[in-house]
Amino acid sequence: MDTETQGKPALLGGRPTLQEPLPSPHNVGEEEVAATARVLRGGPLSGFVGVAGDKFYGGAEVRRFEARFAQYFGVKHAVSFNSGTTALHGTIAALGIGPCDEVIVPPYTMAASAVCVVMNGAVPVFADIDPRTFCLDPKSVREKITKYTKAILVVHLFGQSADMDAIMAIAKEHNLKVIEDNAQSPAAKYKGRYAGTIGDVGMFSFNVNKVAQCGEGGVLVTNDDNYALRAQLLRNHGESVVDDLPGYDAGPIFGSNYRMTELEAAVAYEQLEKLERFNAHKVGLCEYLTAQLSGIPGITTPHIPEGNTHVYFNHALLIDESKLGLSRDLLCKAMAAEGFPLGKGYVKPVYHLRMFQERRAFNQTHFPFEYDGYGGAPDYRKGSLPVVERLHFKELVATQLCQYPRTKETIDLFVVALKKVLAHRDALSAAQ
Ligand SMILES: Cc1ncc(COP(=O)(O)O)c(C=O)c1O
């Protein structure tokens, strides 16, 4: 790769550090090719049928993947879905949460973590985040509990676990369920236990951007037989099946088609076998990046609380503009010009989205946010959660630079670009 490490920043007319864009990450190998060929030659491409009986639970590849997943993470049930989002829908449905119920969620996450609550006719209530881990702040969670609260949905953001001891203690005290959105932190550990397996129901994603992926896919995990069955009913036309399940007494349910194909399951199985290796690669690069950046005034590198391991879906930094001598916007602009786009924050706080601002999810009604029979008053005002707003709009910068199969050389170039930008901070600011 042709690089320019000296001289003026690209934003001031110099040569960009990176002369061509980094290749897109691709982690599919011969094992996945062989697995898909096996399915394509042997068929069928999906093993599900939406009636009670053996095929209600999916085909051979789906069941093999689910069994391996359950064994890997040490849970009783792993139920595959066709995306992490539909698996999240399953977590809420499994617990029987619906209209007039509230679920406390973090605002710094992919919208699906809150929208899955609305999909079930329930109300997401946002609590603020911890300024160092970016996961739910237990103190804020406590403040958001009302008589309608039924569950806390934690998101293990960017690759490490939320403070699960504190969350589980609050849940116990108030008789609430705990759901773990673990889309971003597969195989991260909290005090020796896998994130995603500590609460009542957990969820994982296998979408193309995740460390282990099959294009699109998700998994719900639980140790509870009834929750697992309700998830399976949601996944596969439950309303048509439930009458034929003798003794079913886990409450009303209807389903959809959220079924994983045999091809996806075959790929997901192989990727799961490589998860540890993929994570180790990413952790190694992220720790190397952290070491290169530590000591630069105005940059705070990732904080990992005692007892957590971090698998770095994102490597997130906090910027103190006055100490850095450069605004966050200008830093990101200058790094993009060098060939290294940086995220200004992550995604905007979810309650800023139009559906929450207008309280409209279904046509012209305000259901489920306001209607006769529900007396709650969730607060979606912009500015209402100061920590997430400060981090997102002022301080946080995120990169996925360390994705497999990138190398140390890529990180070195990133650091060269950053140092070049910082060496010219005054000229860059003056040129604005
Ligand atoms: C925190 C979080 N939750 C949920 C999802 C949804 O997963 P999927 O894209 O597999 O539907 C994602 C995916 O980006 C995510 O990052």
Automatic annotation (TrEMBL):
InterPro entries given in the database record: DegT/StrS_aminotransferase (IPR000653), PyrdxlP-dep_Trfase (IPR015424), PyrdxlP-dep_Trfase_major (IPR015421), PyrdxlP-dep_Trfase_small (IPR015422)
Keywords: Pyridoxal phosphate
One function term, GO molecular function aspect: pyridoxal phosphate binding
Pfam families referenced in this protein's UniProt entry, alphabetically: DegT_DnrJ_EryC1 (PF01041)
Annotated region described as Disordered, given as residue ranges: 1-27
A GO biological-process term: polysaccharide biosynthetic process
Gene3D superfamilies on file: Aspartate Aminotransferase, domain 1 (3.90.1150.10), Type I PLP-dependent aspartate aminotransferase-like (Major domain) (3.40.640.10)
The family this protein is said to belong to: Belongs to the DegT/DnrJ/EryC1 family.
Protein name (Swiss-Prot/TrEMBL): DegT/DnrJ/EryC1/StrS aminotransferase
Species of origin: Candidatus Adlerbacteria bacterium RIFCSPLOWO2_01_FULL_54_21b
